[in-house]
Amino acid sequence: GKRVILVSNNSSKSPGQYVEKCRKLGINVSTENDIVTSSRVASTYLKNLPNRTGRVYVLGGQGLGNELKAANVDHFGIGPDYLENHIVMDDQSVNVELENDVFAVLVGFDRYICYKKMVKAVSYLRNENCRFVATNDDAFFPSENCRIALPGAGSIVQAISYASQRKPIVLGKPHSPMFHYVKDELKIDPQKTIMIGDWPPTDIRFAKRNGLASMLVLSGNATIEHAQKPEDRETTADFYCESLKTLCDLESVRRFFEFLHYI
User: Fold this and answer.
1) How is the cofactor bound (predicted)?
2) Which residue, among 73, 176, 81, has the nearest Cα to 131 in the 3D structure?
């Protein structure tokens, strides 16, 4: 049989939370080891930094905090951080207290993002020794309501990057840290692995950059037009199908697994 690993840029949930979600959906995921999230990659990355001392200032949710705690990475900043007094801009005085032991700023999706948090993040990053790390740079979340646009973690990352004039180390798809985590921690063979995803700029680009075969499913945000762009090789998948259900139907599954036998 083939091992299935779920890889997500969503930093708001821990792998354990995804296991429960999958079980509720009837998806057989046995352990957390079958799930990789950007929060898990971030906690591992920060834990393994050499000579790290101090704490991480986090813009993110509790799922990210849970992963940092499990990795014994000291952190703060998760949750609301409302202004007790207004930030006064006319005389440039700002009533924000900063900590002195911050060695990294970690930015994920933060539903409580506010100007005060941005002030803190950018201020910490003025120290050139403070690392700037992002869980992912996704521009938006998928939404069933076509009239509603949901900005993703990438919108927060870009704001902090622009104001601090610093470029982050981005960990999630399509960037290499996510791939190295999957390859090294889960011991996959890239030549025998296929990436199946529903968004070309992250999933298919992730596969192409890291030497994986790729399949685009059209049950998410992608359309048939995304699947047929040979001029953009980095986001054009090797295969595409309407949905995972289609993949498992009749003749298509036989042909597909014949292909898998050779990779």
Assistant:
1) Divalent metal ions. Mg(2+) is the most effective.
2) 73
pLDDT tens digits, one per residue of 213-245 = 999 998 877 777 777 776 678 899 998 888 877
| Residue whose pair of structure tokens reads 């042909």 in the numeric block | 255
Q: Domain 191-263 sits in which CATH superfamily? A: HAD superfamily/HAD-like (3.40.50.1000)
Q: How far apart are CA 260 and CA 214, in angstroms?
A: 11
* Fold agreement between 39-170 and 191-263: yes
CB 105 within 8 A of CB 125: yes
Check the annotation: does 9 bind a ligand.
Answer: yes
* Residue 8 marked as a ligand binder: yes
User: Position of tokens 């690392």?
Assistant: 131
Burial class from Cβ neighbours inside 10 Å (0-12, 13-18, 19+) for residue 26 reads exposed
pTM: 0.88
Tokens of 66: 């849970």
Say yes or no: domain 39-170 is CATH 1.10.10.60.
no
User: Is residue 136 annotated as involved in ligand binding?
Assistant: no
Asked whether residue 145 is marked as a ligand-binding residue, the answer is: no
Per-residue pLDDT tens digits for 156-215 = 999 999 999 999 999 999 999 999 999 999 999 999 999 999 999 999 999 999 999 999
Domain ranges, ordered by start, for the chain: 39-170, 191-263
- In angstroms, rounded to a whole number, what is the distance separating the alpha carbons of residues 27 and 36? 16
